[in-house]
Structure formats: structure tokens, C-alpha cells
Amino acid sequence: MEYKKITVFAGHYGSGKTNLAVNYALNLKSRGFDTALCDLDIVNPYFRSKDSERLLAERGIRVISSKFANTNLDVPAINPESYSIFAGDKKTYYVIDLGGDDRGAYALGRFSGFFAGLKSYEMIFVINMYRPETAAPEAAMSIMREIEAACRVKFTAIANNSNIGKATTRAHIANSVEYAERVAELSKLSIKMTCFMQGIDGRDFPNPYPIKIYTKEIWDI
User: DSSP letters of 91-117?
Assistant: First the structure.
């Protein structure tokens, strides 16, 4: 797998993009890359990479997030440190967890001008067939276009993260392969990864990508 200096994960609410962003940052660090995770999810208070800050810090991963994250203040603020991502740092690999749908994507819009001159970045559309609003490939495409319009940055690849949480089986993922391939066909993008959790044999999935569950379920809060 090729790793870019900046990787953005975005998708519909409940797609699992935050957990995937945390997994990806940990993977980068395990391969010897200096890694930072930027939490730009300023919309959803329940699933956010800030929740994994202690784990990430223990692994030597810097977390950039709003100072109001995980407080009782509902303030959609962006940490000024986020601008450091585009300051020409040639050493650090950045993972950006973007808020869900078009509302969350506006946070990235203020950085859209920086992306025009970047040569090493990718923006990955995280899809989950088992979310009602994106159960059909055409519905997923609608969400994709809304996000692109809001943040003014184009997606470059797809991550099939179809799951139903801890109850996910190999059959759930296998049944989503055709769905993901249809989204790829409609978007003219490649499937960069097919995610599967520990205990599932996913070696024969398209571009298999094993993950762990790090973010909290809403009922665990």
C-alpha cells in the first residue's frame, strides 16, 4: 500500500471513518513514520478520534483537535494548529478525520486552497452498506458529491468499511463487495481498502485491511 503525506478520511455519519482514521494512524506509526492525527470532526460529539488520544499518545502519535473536544461545550472550533499540516513539514505524515456529510466537510473547506498545490495527499471516501442512508450505491454517491461540494476537495479513493459493529461477520463483509465495486464504478475511483475486524479471515477481500475497534459505541458513553 502506498502512503501519502496527508490522508483524509470522510464519509456519512456512522460509516466508521473515525475508527478507520485511528487504525490508519497507528498503522503508519508502526511502520516507522512520524505520525499526527488531526480531528476535524467538529460536528459529531459521540464518535471522535479525540477519544483515543491517550492510546495515540502512548504510541507517539500527536493529536490535533479542538480545545473544546470532549467538554460540555458544543462549539464548532478548529484548532489553529491544524494549519501546521500545510506548513511544509516533510517529516510528519498527517491523518485527518473529517466530520460526517456536508456539514462536517465545511471544516476542510477553509484548507481547500492548500490542497491544490499538494502532490502527496489522498482523500478517502469511507462507505458502509449497512447504514440506511447509504445502503444503495447511488445514495452513497449522493453523499460523496455533497461532501466534495462542501469542502471543495475531490475524493481520490474508496474504503469499504461495511460493518454492523462488533456483530460483524465475514458474510457481512463478503456481501458488501459487490456494493463497493458499484460505488467504485460510479465514482471512477479505486477501492483502496476493504476493512475487516480481528477474528475474520479477510485475506481474499479486495485490498484487505485489518482493523481493531478503538472508538466508543454511542451506548458505551
Answer: SEEEEEEEPSHHHHHHHHHTTHHHHTT
What letter does residue 41 receive in the DSSP assignment?
-
pLDDT band at 11 (very low <50, low <70, confident <90, very high): very high
Q: Which domains does the chain have, with CATH numbers?
A: 6-220 (3.40.50.300)
Element (H, E) at 57: helix 53-58
Start-to-end Cα distance in the chain: 34
The grid coordinates of residue 176 equal: 458488501
The span from the CA of 79 to the CA of 85, in Å, is 11
- Tell me the pLDDT tens digit for each residue of 17-36: 999 999 999 999 999 999 99
Phi then psi for residue 92, to 5 deg, are: -90, 140
Calculate the dihedral angle through the C-alpha atoms of 126, 128, 129, 132, rounding to the nearest 10 degrees: -110
**3-state class of 152 per DSSP?**
coil
Angle at 93 between CA 110 and CA 42, to 5 degrees: 40
